[in-house]
Amino acid sequence: MKLSYQDAGVDIDTGNKLIEEIKPIVKKTNRPGVVSNIGGFGGLFDLKKSGFKDPILVAATDGVGTKLKLAVEMANYSSIGQDLVAMCVNDLICQGAEPLFFLDYYATGKLDLVIGKEIISGISSACSRSNCALIGGETAEMPGVYEGGDFDLAGFAVGAMERGNSLPKKITEGDCLLALPSSGIHSNGFSLVRKVLEKSKLTWHDTAPFCDDRLGDIFLRPTRLYVQEILTLLKQDLIKGVAHITGGGLTENIPRILNDDLGAKIDKSTWSQNEEFKWLKSVGNIDEDEMFKTFNCGIGMVIVVDPKLVNETLSILSSKKTSAFQIGEVTNNGRLIYSGKLV
Question: What residue numbers bound the domain in which 188 lies?
């Protein structure tokens, strides 16, 4: 009996068909610098054509984590592509870099054309909104590694900045910490979220106790893209530092942009959490310290600004229809200290 790759669970023809179907979707992400189409052995990008004179390249990689299990459970793959892109490009801008291009890696046990196209459409849309070209990727069928509807996603983003513009820079005691709200839980802490769900005796398809939406729909809200707002502030030289509040929460991510001799004071009463965070804390009986080390607790990005530039910064963000507010300031005690009561 003759065997084929398809007999082993890998359908090359389906993979090729997916590539053909996504080509027009991917093409919409093209920006100055793109000099190749998908389907080759690598993606080509002309850095000179992107407008930089003396550039430093910055690279970032990340995934979506166990939020993917929620997408499978809800049979909704429309938003996780944005999660993937956001986790990478939001990191790039923390270094002061403009995202230029993106590549994805999508691995599954059995390739489904409809699901694959939905995922890559979400990636493409998020890339377009970040002015970041999707120049390549890889789709892998791996039966025996992934079972049923399981799959994994990873993303790779490359950006650039002019030499000397790297962040953080010259952060000092008294600088203000401004916060940009999150759209929800984003893409971190889902292993703990699933534990809380199990304890609650509810399912993702049940109506949330705190609103009329299903729990699964609430927690699937995609990670917010902050690229356009932050780049606007960077071009006007208003920012000293940017912290993307991902795994580790405020507690671990703010210190990443501070020198060892600097700290921060955060007033928890300056913002209101989304209801899902209150539900997680209550049902899971999670300590507040643990909440701040695991989840973003309603804040997706923190920027460091000179006190004299706060009003100008807030005004520019407001003109972009982006809300922001001061949550604290930089101190000289080398520690992150919380005050006030979380609401």
Answer: 176-339
Could you report the per-residue pLDDT of 57-103, keeping only the tens digit for each?
999 999 999 999 999 999 999 999 999 999 999 999 999 999 999 99
Euclidean distance between CA atoms 240 and 253, whole angstroms: 15
What tokens were used for 113?
A: 């054309």
Is 244 found in the same domain as 269?
Answer: yes
Same domain, 150 and 204: no
Token pair for 18: 């997916």
Residues 111 and 184 in one domain: no
Burial of 287-301, coded b for 16+ CB within 10 Å and e otherwise, reads eeebbbbbbbbbbbb
* DSSP annotation string for 249-299: HHHHHGGGGS-TT-EEEEEGGGS---HHHHHHHHHHT--HHHHHHHS-TTE
Residue range 228-257, pLDDT digits in tens: 999 999 999 999 999 999 999 999 999 999
The residue written with tokens 């299990």 in the block is: 69
Determine, yes or no, domain membership for 223.
Answer: yes
pTM value surpassing 0.90? yes
